[in-house]
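Structure ticket #2291
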Amino acid sequence: MNNKIIGCLLLMTTALNAVAQSGTSSPYSQYGLGILTDPSQGGNRGMNGVGIGLRHGKQINTLNPASYAVVDSMTMLFDMGLSGQLTHFKEGGTRVNAQNGNFEYAVGAFRATKGVGVSFGLLPLTNVGYDYTSSQTLTEFNTVIPTSYKGSGGLHQAFVGAGWQVLPHLSIGANVGYMWGTLTRSVTTTATTTVNAIGKVYSATVANYKVDLGAQWEQPLNKQDVLSLGAIVGIGHHLNADAGLTTQVGNGTPTVETIENALALPMSYGVGLSFNHARSLTVALDGQYQKWGALQFPQENSQGQYVLTDGLLKDRVKVTAGVEWLPNPNQAIQSSSKLYRRIYYRAGLGYATPYYNINGQSGPKEISASVGLGIPMFGWMSRSFLNISGQWAHTAAPGLITENIFRLNIGITFNERWFAKWKVE
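Resolution: structure written out below.
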């Protein structure tokens, strides 16, 4: 068992570098802190990321740390995932495709003592990654000035969490994380015979904490049906991260402007419910609200000063629904079941509003849908699963770029009986 735990820690160390890669080519990642990532794991992703009310002893659910309280006492859970995506961009008559791959997460969980589960791992928080060029015509000089826009980086989190069953039907939990990352954005105007080149680099480095709280209430309705209610709160706070702007005109000396303690996380809230019938059918619904509109964000004003500005960010709402079906939930007879009866079948839908404004108007809204499978691995005695899901996301707003994202998620949930005591007679 010790060797397996050490192996998991080595995988986590390897993932530390991989998780820092950008998984987007979207020009919308130049706004705010970047594209907000999906924090869910393999099983939840097939249901389009729903999970605030879900309680499952054989899957890790970092969306609500209260769920750790029901982690199976006989096993050590470990879940790793990656994704690949194709994005189709459309603006007017222009169409462009981009491909990305990304290591998504690496998380583990185990039962520490009766009624207390512990989780730990690495999760992405935001992604920044874009590279495009636009041109502006200066009529007074009768010339065209091309400008390139580039960005990279993102924020990531290493966390440890715990869930505690405080009452027969009530559990509470918390995730405490260390978040880090660098956000870099540049705007470069090409020089001409009449205009000097202008280069601007916007950068910020984050190293701070993140705290998320959760609670769940599980209410049996009868012998076969269970209703679970969940709630989460993300603690908003300043990140003690300075935002810098370096400007260089032609071959002149660069000027540097710095805004101290410029970035912050918003207060966020979420509620969810799930209904389970006969350990076979699960239906879940989540609603989340993030108060980004209460935060200022760095921007140059009309006088060319780099200052904190109101109105660049806006409150975000996200609604997600998902369903999961396992034809044969009876583990005792799985050896005689067909494979298709031991597969988890999943699907989900989602809707989200943007958390930023673009030139005074709201950014694009997103609608999404997913389907997925949880396929048992290593023979019928194993409780490990290969989780595969496909997701389509559509973002659009009047007069802005339309994106259609086709994403493939692949995750492996290792769920083996490391702590079981075998008896031979």
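Closing remark: The CA atoms of residues 92 and 401 lie 8 Å apart.
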